[in-house]
Every structure is written in C-alpha cells, then in structure tokens.
Automatic annotation (TrEMBL):
Organism ancestry: Bacteria, Bacillati, Bacillota, Bacilli, Bacillales
Function description: Catalyzes the reversible conversion of ribose-5-phosphate to ribulose 5-phosphate.
Keywords: Isomerase
Family: Belongs to the ribose 5-phosphate isomerase family.
Transmembrane segments: none
Uppermost EC category: isomerase
Domain of life (superkingdom): Bacteria
NCBIfam families in the record: PRK00702.1, rpiA
GO molecular function, one term: ribose-5-phosphate isomerase activity
Gene: rpiA
Catalytic activity, as annotated: aldehydo-D-ribose 5-phosphate = D-ribulose 5-phosphate
Organism listed in the record: Paenibacillus sonchi
Residues that hold substrate according to the record: 25-28, 80-83, 93-96, 120
Metabolic or biological pathway: Carbohydrate degradation; pentose phosphate pathway; D-ribose 5-phosphate from D-ribulose 5-phosphate (non-oxidative stage): step 1/1
Name under which the protein is recorded: Ribose-5-phosphate isomerase A
Gene Ontology terms describing biological process: pentose-phosphate shunt, non-oxidative branch
C-alpha cells in the first residue's frame, strides 16, 4: 500500500473548479500533483503555482496551468508534505530543501492541507533535524549561532559540494532531539541575521491527512485561532 499516495489523493478531493492551488514539494506532494494532473486532463479548471523547480516541471509536464505570482494575489488551497507533524499541526518541513518557497506559498493560501504517512505524525517535534535556510555569506558564524540554541548542526551536502536551495542558499540541518516549544524556537531562529527562513510551520496548516498502512486515513483539523 502506498500510503503517501493514499493521503495525497484524498487531499486532491478538496480541489474544485476555479481554485488557485499551491503545489507542494517532495515524494508525498508528488502524488497530489500527479492526481491533480489527471483531474485537469479530465476537465478540472484550476490555476497553480509551484513551491520548487521540481514541482513546477512535474506540473508543466502534466498540463497543469501555472501562473506567475504577479498574476494572482493569493491562493485558495495549498497541498504539501511534511517531515514531522504534531497534534497541534505544527510542522517540520524542508527535508527536500524547499521550505522557503513552501512557507511563502502556504502563508499566501486561505488553507493549507498537509499530506503525510503515519511515520511523520509525532508527539513532540525534533527527532527529524530541523532544516534552516541560511545565506552563504559568513555561514560559519550563522552555524555557530544556531548551535548556541542547543542543537548539533550539519550543513547539508550534495555530491562533492554543499547543497544549494532553489534560491541559492545553504541548508543547516539542526538536530534538537526534542523541541519543547516550537514557537519559542521559531522566535530565536528569526533573531539570527544569517537565517533566511526555518522549517517550523506554526499556525499555518489547517488540516492534515495521514495515510496509514492498514489503508485507513486519519484527519487532524487545527482548532480555529489556535
Ligand atoms: O522541502 C521539502 C518539503 O518540505 C517536503 O514537503 C518534506 O520534506 C516532506 O517530503 P516527503 O513527502 O518526500 O517526505
């Protein structure tokens, strides 16, 4: 059973004619984009923006109409994956390096649906190293500042060199083990000048659709105003 596909295809049921849709990034969002492509070929009328070069290419190949950010002032719905999520729908994202674009797109959406398999649902965030996008300039100092927050930091690599995001920045993967307060940590991260954005998504996702090995789906909805 492909539980990522199960969750992703359920989320696509929320898409209706006329919607402006944000396309997430990663191996779960892949299935949502694929299903959306099928529905577009069957006549669904939507426009979309993508959160990464990879998702944009996938959408284009499937014939999903893409628009520029200057053409629209917001989105109705974004469907995206997560690396970890807790019961308050606080997320860790950025395992695929797309967190900055993902956060811009999700924040510009009336609703964000997270799609994930059950391994991503945790009691406390932090087992997954938190991806933090940092500028290459003086990255050594930024990494040192991040480590002062109580994590071990590894600069993400790719092949022989350092990994670069679609925006030309580096990713520092910060292993906290346990994140007691995501909002306090988010505030501390935002205070570090070399940090462009971090992978904590707090108060952004409205709904999570979690695919389970037994073929069932769990839906978690965030209380309004939480
Ligand atoms: O940068 C990547 C994104 O935040 C992904 O949504 C996240 O890493 C989950 O990816 P996957 O569905 O491949 O586990």
């Amino acid at each position: 059973m492909n539980v990522k596909q199960l969750a992703a295809e359920k989320a696509v049921e929320y898409v209706v004619d006329g919607m402006k849709v944000g396309l997430g990034t990663g191996s779960t969002a892949y299935w949502a984009i694929r299903k959306l492509g099928e529905r577009v070929q069957e006549g669904l009328k939507i426009t979309a923006v993508a959160t990464s070069v990879a998702s944009e290419e996938q959408a284009r190949e499937l014939g999903i109409p893409l628009v520029g950010f200057g053409d629209i002032d917001g989105l109705d719905l974004t469907i995206d994956g997560a690396d970890e999520l807790n019961h308050d729908l606080e997320l860790i994202k950025g395992g695929g390096g797309a967190l900055l674009r993902e956060k811009i797109v999700a924040r510009g959406s009336k609703r964000m649906i997270v799609v994930a398999d059950e391994s991503k649902a945790v009691g406390t965030l932090g087992q997954f190293p938190l991806p933090v996008e940092i500028v290459p300039f003086a990255w050594e100092w930024t990494v040192a500042d991040l480590a002062k927050l109580g994590c071990t930091v590894e600069l993400r690599r790719s092949g022989d060199g350092l990994y670069k995001t679609d925006n030309g920045n580096y990713i520092a993967d910060c292993r906290f083990g346990t994140i007691a307060s995501a909002s306090e940590l988010a505030a501390s991260l935002q205070n570090i000048t070399g940090v462009v954005e971090h992978g904590l998504f707090i108060g952004i996702a409205a709904l999570a659709i979690i695919g389970k090995q037994d073929g069932s789906i769990e839906i978690i909805e965030r209380e309004h105003g939480e």
